[in-house]
Specification:
This protein has 21 helices and 19 strands. The chain is α/β, with parallel strands linked by helices. Helix 1 packs across helix 2, helix 1 (about 5-20) crosses helix 4 and helix 17 packs across helix 21.
Length: about 675
């Protein structure tokens, strides 16, 4: 392919990116630019687009010529490159804006530039609503780890994450460079070719990488175990050759030895206006968003915009019908491939609740079916997951002491159609709150874009704070997840180990959910299995062996194994002291069902909710989480007074597990006393 094709593609991407920010019409500059062609209020981000476009133009031919059965994916680390992603989708013919089907035409081109940033169509940043996008931008840091997760157990796949030099300052990116050393079995994995877009600036100032000279940059990446390939992009044939060489030296993830990393040193806002009215623009924070603030009304800025757009010679790049010319199309890979569908696991053997194995057995059985990974931040043994053989982890289990990296791997693995589980301490899981909120947004948009059917994101939350030290007490992750009111979220709180194993098997085989399974790693009491089918299907069920017939004086509800242990013991105490009291006992297996529809698609319907909780009977509920989000779920149903929810409350100082239960009012004695008081208050 001639270098002219790549250059033409790069100019076309740059022109479309700038045109989206500024133009309402005259996309090809078929006539001299007029102020009326310019938007009243330019919006969007320009600075990161040129290096992103440079890489897209070079990777297109490689993607088009990939061998049968292989796959090359580009992962955008920066969410601000949405003009680039939209321009790339347009040139590839996969964008659909006018209602007449995807493809390139003048109406489509006009809709692309006029409608930008398409806030209700695509969002202002990179989202999966844009064809070909696999990672929602806006959450800095996890792109490299997600890329690594995508190529695990996928030797046919090459992923190229585009990482801004500002992202190098995030903990997730900094850890991900080293994290690949924890991934073994190189012959079974694909490859990751990281590309650092070293433009010298973050959003508001110089990046730390910009303060390093080339020798220091080389030493930095060499020390991390990489082979840095530094290029400024000015020599297009030279860069093309360097990229080809990097691919020939690319190693599968996990293979020992130095991996290539490309460092593209291109000034932020490159190819844009150098200066306007004596004001420097390129290479300054002014290029992060729109370098020209008001070209419609400012003569100097208008002249700069006209010269800027004309420098790309768009009439050479687009036909009068709005289609890319043959030269541009030579460098395009064509429409993106559809995401691979999830490989369904072999069905687990049918079994009744009493014959279910423990959690560890479920994990091992799922792993035996293939296309599965267990990730944990150095806590598999500590969480009592018995998966080791001869004191060694199996190839499908990986530990690294970093919650964010584990989530990045989990996200990349599930995003490419495979099942995974992240097992971690309850207190450390909240580190990933922001990543999970961002991923919920991503999954929601994937679903809207018709890209549902992805394996669920599964967290096993154990080593609970109820049995741990002061510094290891924080159930905050699931509180944050419930507060999102996102229907993809499920917070499973099974009553015993048998139920936990059954729930785990179900969620590992599911799709389109973000699941949190809270279960104690220590042995606890086992409860009669008869109600569990309803607990699993409805999310909550009455326990007949602890319930009276007829209308109760009080309803007791547990969620989680430790609350179930304490609340069932409270029933015994209550019957001794108040034998006349009639009780209905129920267990909640999924906290998300307590919320109302339509926010919670799997919510208990009103009839079932009333059958379980009554209408005016007082309810004492014991939960393993903070009580506030559970109260909020109930309040959304209009239940604001008769429910008394008891859960985790932060102690002021270290205490024993028994002392923590007492402090929170979750001991059997405290629950029994509270129940008696509630009955007295209600009858009075």
């Amino acid at each position: 392919m001639p270098h002219q094709a790549i250059d033409a593609c790069w100019r076309a991407l740059n022109h479309l990116s700038a045109a989206q920010l500024y133009l309402t019409d005259n996309a090809r500059l078929a006539r001299p630019l007029r102020p009326t062609d310019v938007k009243e209020t330019p919006r969007g981000h320009w600075g990161v687009c040129p290096p992103v476009n440079y890489m897209l133009a070079h990777l297109g031919p490689l993607t088009a010529r990939r061998p049968a059965g292989s796959e090359l994916l580009v992962l955008h680390g920066a969410g601000h490159a949405s003009p680039s992603a939209l321009a790339h989708a347009y040139l590839g013919g996969s964008l659909h804006l006018t209602g007449n089907g995807p493809g390139c035409s003048m109406p489509e081109l006009r809709a692309l530039i006029t409608g930008f940033p398409h806030p209700e169509r695509f969002g202002g940043e990179i989202t999966p609503l844009i064809p070909g996008v696999r990672h929602t931008g806006g959450q800095l840091g996890p792109a490299l780890a997600i890329a690594q997760g995508m190529v695990l157990d996928a030797p046919h796949r090459l992923v190229v994450p585009l990482i801004g030099d500002g992202e190098l300052e995030t903990g997730a990116t900094a850890a991900a460079w080293l994290a690949r050393r924890a991934l073994h079995g190189s012959g079974e994995h694909g490859a990751v070719l990281p590309v650092v877009l070293a433009n010298g600036l973050k959003m508001g100032g110089s990046s730390l990488l910009a303060g390093m000279n080339q020798d220091e940059v080389r030493a930095y990446f060499t020390g991390l175990g990489y082979e840095p390939l530094i290029h400024d992009g000015a020599d297009l044939p030279g860069f093309r050759q360097m990229l080809a060489d990097a691919l020939t030296r690319q190693r599968p993830l996990g293979e020992p030895g130095r991996q290539p990393v490309i460092v593209l040193t291109m000034p932020k806002g490159h190819t844009g206006p150098e200066q306007v009215a004596g004001r420097r623009i390129v290479g300054t924070p002014a290029v992060h968003k729109t370098p020209l603030k008001d070209p419609r009304n400012n003569d100097a800025e208008f002249a700069a915009l006209a010269a800027w757009l004309a420098s790309y010679r768009p009439a050479e790049l687009f036909t009068t019908q709005g289609r890319p010319t043959d030269l541009v199309r030579q460098a395009m890979a064509g429409p993106p491939r559809e995401p691979e569908t999830a490989r369904p696991p072999a069905p687990l053997a049918a079994r009744g609740p009493q014959s279910w194995p423990d959690v560890s057995s479920v994990v091992r059985e799922r792993a035996a079916n293939g296309a599965f990974r267990l990730f944990s931040p150095d806590e598999i043994a500590s969480n009592r997951l018995a998966v080791t053989t001869d004191d060694a982890l199996p190839p499908w289990a990986t530990e690294i002491l970093n919650e964010e990296i584990c989530h990045g791997w989990l996200q990349g693995y599930t995003e490419t159609g495979r099942d995974a589980l992240l097992a971690t301490y309850e207190a450390f899981a909240p580190v990933n709150t922001s990543l999970l909120v961002q991923h919920l947004k991503h999954r929601r948009l994937c679903y809207l874009a018709g890209q549902g059917g992805l394996p669920s994101v599964n967290y096993l939350i154990t080593s609970l704070g109820w049995r741990n030290t002061y510094t290891h007490q924080n159930p905050g992750l699931v509180s944050s997840m419930l507060e999102t009111e996102d229907g993809f979220v499920h917070v499973y709180t099974p009553a015993d180990a048998t139920r936990a194993a059954a729930v785990l098997a179900v969620i590992l085989a599911g799709h389109d959910r973000v699941n949190f399974l809270i279960t104690d790693k220590h042995p606890g009491p086992a409860f009669p299995p008869d109600p569990f089918r309803d607990e699993l299907t409805d999310g909550a069920a009455v326990w007949p062996h602890l319930s009276h017939h007829g209308r109760p004086h009080l309803i007791l509800a547990s969620a989680g194994d430790i609350p179930a242990r304490e609340l069932t013991a409270a029933v015994t105490l209550l019957r001794r002291s108040h034998p006349e009291i009639k009780i209905r006992y129920l267990h909640v297996n999924d906290l998300a069902v307590l919320g109302p529809a339509p926010h919670w698609p799997y919510a208990l319907d009103e009839r079932t909710f009333t059958r379980l909780f009554g209408i005016d009977t007082p309810v004492l509920m014991a939960v393993p989480t903070h009580p506030a989000p559970v109260r909020a779920l109930l309040a959304a149903r209009g239940e604001t007074s008769r429910f008394h929810v008891v859960g985790y409350r932060e102690p002021s100082r270290p205490t024993t597990p028994e002392g923590l239960l007492e402090h929170c009012g979750l001991s059997a004695a405290a629950l029994s006393a509270r129940a008696a008081l509630m009955i007295k208050e209600h009858s009075g």
